[in-house]
Amino acid sequence: MRTQVAIIGGGPSGLLLSQLLHQKGIDTVVLERKTKDYVLGRIRAGILETGFVDLMREAGVSDRMDKECFVHDGTVISFGDTEFSINFKDLTGSHVVVYGQTEVTRDLYDAREAMDGKIVFNTDNVTIHGADTDTPFVTYTTDGAEHRIDCDYIAGCDGFHGVSRQTIPLTVRREYEKLYPFGWLGVLSETPPVHEELIYACSDRGFALCSMRNENLSRYYIQCSLSDSPEDWTDAAFWTELKRRIPAKYAEKLVTGPSIEKSIAPLRSFVTEPMRWGRLFLCGDAAHIVPPTGAKGLNTAASDIHYLYNGLVQFYEEADREGIDRYSEKALARIWKAERFSWSTTNLLHRFPYQNEFDLKMQRADIDFLRDNREAQSVFAQNYVGLPY
Ligand code: FAS
Ligand code: PHB
Predict the structure, then answer these.
(1) Of 139, 339, 356, 373, which sees the most CB atoms within 10 A?
(2) Is 46's C-beta closer than 6 angstroms to any atom of ligand 2?
(3) Domain of 256: which CATH number?
(4) Pair (105, 26) in one structural domain
(5) Which domain holds residue 228?
(6) Active site residues
(7) In whole angstroms, what is the distance from residue 378 CA to residue 86 CA?
(8) What is the model's pTM?
(9) Are the C-beta atoms of 148 and 60 separated by less than 8 Å?
């Protein structure tokens, strides 16, 4: 088989790139290790920057999102029983959209299948060959048979545990990582959201987040120990702990219910440089990870796709390599700013085991300054709604 762009990974990055390129008549094949149902069963991000929304519109897959999403003009930040709002619209003229990653991925799969997009599921042993030559190819096995795809370029959209990043020699790639001493225990419940906006809660007992997917599907998180497993937490224990971390006015009206999904995500900051090696480009979680506090994971994947898509179109339509030659530089410039914001909000709102009384006073002063200072809120809002591509 031959294609123009071989895409490894059928998550939001790979599917969005495939869909965008297809619209420009550029041929792709997507290789996905799992089944479509498995991919759609993962509960992950919930907040989309307007840049992501614009890309979904450009890809022609925004109809359901436009009908079903929530537009959020701000968020609530609380510390114990005190709270304040940050008004994105007032401070930046922009907003964010609440629409789950599961739905984004579902819409992209539906569009790819409606256009007979080539997606191969259950691929094993995906291996990238000759990425640093002018004749790269990818091999993989399905149902025990080996296959080969010759291509012009390879997009590594295969997430943090994929093969693409590992293909770049250690003599070429540099990795930057920070691990956090806690995780997020997340619960999905078919209950109405406790508030119309998200609540990022800092408390003496640790961080909590009240989010949502729709008017009867809520997503809640509490900071938890890395030694915890979801089975350690009954639904009742989760709800009790969540109520102890959010302001009483919300705890009193929280509608609880059975969890339909319960999982723990570790938190890490991670970046690989460069994001290109020859004809291999890394996108999304294959290249970088953020703690989800700033809602940047999926949104930095989107800006990577924006840069790579436009670079590939520039190459195929104008024989101009400037876009693909500058891909890594442009993507990393935005990624490091998102890493900073995600690291900063994680430090602002979580409890760290080593914090002493002075550290706690500094954290409280940081939150009080954000509460009282419009410029500080403007910096937060600009980062949260998404810095320019
Ligand atoms: P993905 O990991 O989504 O997709 C990669 C795909 O490649 C997967 O389908 C995988 O099966 C496939 N793959 C892997 N190896 C392969 C191989 N060798 N061959 C073929 N296919 C292969 N972000 C937020 O903004 N907010 C959140 O709350 C949030 N929560 C998260 C919770 C968890 C547990 C995780 C892991 C991430 C979370 N994220 C969150 C970040 C997440 O949303 C990512 O940013 C987003 O999934 C990035 O999309 P992709 O780059 O497509 O990677
Ligand atoms: C979510 O709804 O899953 C979500 C929202 C905001 C975040 C992280 C996760 O910062």
Answers:
(1) 339
(2) yes
(3) 3.30.9.10
(4) yes
(5) 181-266+351-385
(6) 72, 200, 292, 296, 384
(7) 8
(8) 0.96
(9) no
